[in-house]
Amino acid sequence: MKAVVGSVVAAVAASACCLGPVLLSAVGAGAFGAAAAGLEPYRPVFLALTAVLLGGAFVVAYRPGREVCAADGTCAPSAKRTARIVLWVVTVLVVLLVTFPYYVSWLL
């Protein structure tokens, strides 16, 4: 779960150069938006970090694990299904944030 959170934080940081100025300009804080543009040189680093963290999260989520069962044969439901659903939702969110600079012109 830490890798999923880290991936979202890295994706938001990677999109801050483009997403930040648009959001801050929308609320009337243009100077703060201009300051966020200084993060553009670090975008490739944040994107690489996002990809590594998402890759690690997929490895953990889809790694086969041992199923713990009681003596009477009943097994506890796996939390892996929930983790996988959250991971895919976060992956879609990350893709939307990373591609924001390409579709922002259509929104404005």
Molecular structure report:
The chain is an all-alpha fold and 108 residues long. It has one domain (2-63, 78-107). Helix content is 73%, strand content 0%. It is built from five helices and no strands. It has helices at residues 2-26, 30-36, 43-62, 80-98, 100-107. Helix 1 packs parallel to helix 4 and helix 3 runs antiparallel to helix 4. The protein is elongated, with a radius of gyration of 19 Å. The chain starts with a helix and ends with a helix. The model has no long low-confidence stretch (mean pLDDT 73).
What secondary-structure arrangement, pairings included, does this model have?
Layout: H1 2-26, H2 30-36, H3 43-62, H4 80-98, H5 100-107
Helix pairs in contact: 1-2, 1-3, 1-4, 3-4
Overall geometry comes to: elongated
**In terms of per-residue confidence, which ranges show pLDDT below 50 for 5 or more consecutive residues?**
none
- How large is the count of helical segments? 5
- Structural class of the helices, strands and pairings? mainly alpha
**Gyration radius over CA:** 19 Å
